[in-house]
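comment on this one:
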Amino acid sequence: MKIERFEDLECWKKARDLANMIYELTGQKGFSRDLQLRSQMRDAGGSVMHNIAEGFDSGSDAEFVRFLRISRRSGSEVQSQLYLALDREYITAIQLRKAYDKATEVKRLINGLITYLRKNNR
């Protein structure tokens, strides 16, 4: 399959799933009192998918890799924020694990794309 649009990228599709998962979690009752954490988690979750899309249209593989690295870091930020949400009892350990695992999957796919882009640039 030829990749013609960012929507064709598996890492973007999974990042979209992650962002929606974060929106669902932060829409729960406990987050209504913690608008700052809710906003931060939603921003970071969206940043994962948005940086993949932005990087795709950046014009060069090197620039795309730069955006992918930002996206990957946003995935780590989401993972860290999940622990705070757990500590504040906004989410359960099961919810944390499901979202954490999705973020790990996205980061793994991003790493694979970075590796592919670097190999093609040699």
Q: What stands out?
A: The chain has a mean pLDDT of 95. The CA atoms of residues 83 and 92 lie 10 Å apart. The longest helix spans residues 93-120. The chain is about 75% helix and 0% strand.
